[in-house]
Amino acid sequence: MEFDELAGQVLETWRRHNEILLLLLAAIPAKGMTALPAGSRGRTVALQFAHVDHVRRGWLSYFETGKRPKLPRDDKANPPNKPQLKKTLRDSARKVEAFLSDCIQTDAVPKRFSDHALRWMGYLIAHESHHRGQIALALKQSGLRLPEKVSMDGLWGRWFAGK
């Protein structure tokens, strides 16, 4: 496999991951944004999505400054809405993709990941998939189970489906 082809596949993998996250966001009814896993004192669905965005931006800030960023605190009284989340997640995904591209094409490195861009991308995908699972659980326990078209074809099928 040629280097450029592999680099393209890496960036496409990141884009596919974010597409799946945005598909989940779009499928959640408005009342589902306040769902919380049973027995949890944690984040609502809306705040789970916000956390994903904050972590992305936090790592990018750290790579740029070398200093641990102060992530925004969850605003439980004024959580972000779906349009706000869609916009900010698209923006942070583009910034992650740009940084990954810089790592592939230049000497940019993700500190604390042994300078391995793919390890960092794998971490982000694993972290965000964990939160997608928490979101799905919160919805299910709140009686707002995702339609099979979304849960199977969307969240899973998009990984192995064609273009």
Give me some keywords for this one.
single chain, 163 residues, mainly alpha, Four Helix Bundle (Hemerythrin (Met), subunit A), 6 helices, globular
Structural commentary:
With 163 residues, the protein is mainly α. The chain has a single domain, classed as dinb family like domain (Four Helix Bundle (Hemerythrin (Met), subunit A)). It is built from six helices and no strands. The chain has helices at residues 3-27, 45-65, 82-105, 117-141, 148-154, 157-160. It is globular and about 50 Å long.
Which CATH class? Mainly Alpha
**Largest sheet geometry:** none
Share in helix: 55-70%
Number of strands: 0
* Class by SSE composition: mainly alpha
Count the DSSP helices: 6
Q: Sketch the topology as an H/E string, one letter per element.
A: HHHHHH
Low-confidence region ranges: none
CATH domain topology: Four Helix Bundle (Hemerythrin (Met), subunit A)
